[in-house]
Design brief:
The chain has 2 domains: about 80 residues, 434 Repressor (Amino-terminal Domain) (Orthogonal Bundle); about 35 residues. The N and C termini lie far apart (about 65 Å). It contains 7 helices and no strands. With about 130 residues, it is mostly helical. It is elongated and about 65 Å long.
Length: about 130
């Protein structure tokens, strides 16, 4: 069976080891590096429950994971995101609630700061005119 494990992992911009550790942690699995390698090289297919977890991890359908449909570009629902953005999104989803709170507050602070700077520049342009 031809699966898209490696293709999807590479799109996220993470190593096989990063993927293995993150996947095992998020889905309470205990896959070894060799098991992940076997999946990526289509020498072994995970059990059904794990296929569902892999599809959830990559935010794709099981059909897409198993090459049963072939959309171009990013996985369905994630069109328009860069590899870096998808990697950040995946890492964010793996964080604990307290880790997410830290990222959320930091992102809000940077967003507010940049908006203030943009408003200041806009105001300065009006004053000059």
């Amino acid at each position: 069976m031809n699966c898209r494990f490696k293709e999807l992992r590479i799109r996220l911009g993470i190593t096989q080891e990063e993927f293995r550790q993150d996947f095992n942690l998020r889905f309470n699995r205990n896959y070894t590096p060799s098991a992940i390698s076997l999946f990526e090289n289509n020498k072994r297919v995970p059990e059904i429950s794990a296929l569902i977890d892999f599809a959830d991890y990559f935010a794709v359908s099981v059909d897409y994971l198993l090459h049963r449909d072939k959309p171009e570009g990013n996985p369905p629902g994630l069109e328009g995101f860069t590899k870096t953005e998808l990697s950040h999104l995946n890492k964010y989803c793996a964080l604990s609630p307290s880790g997410r709170e830290i990222i959320d507050s930091t992102l809000d602070a940077v967003y507010r700061q940049e908006n203030m700077q943009a408003k200041d520049r806009s105001y300065e342009k009006r004053e000059i005119s």
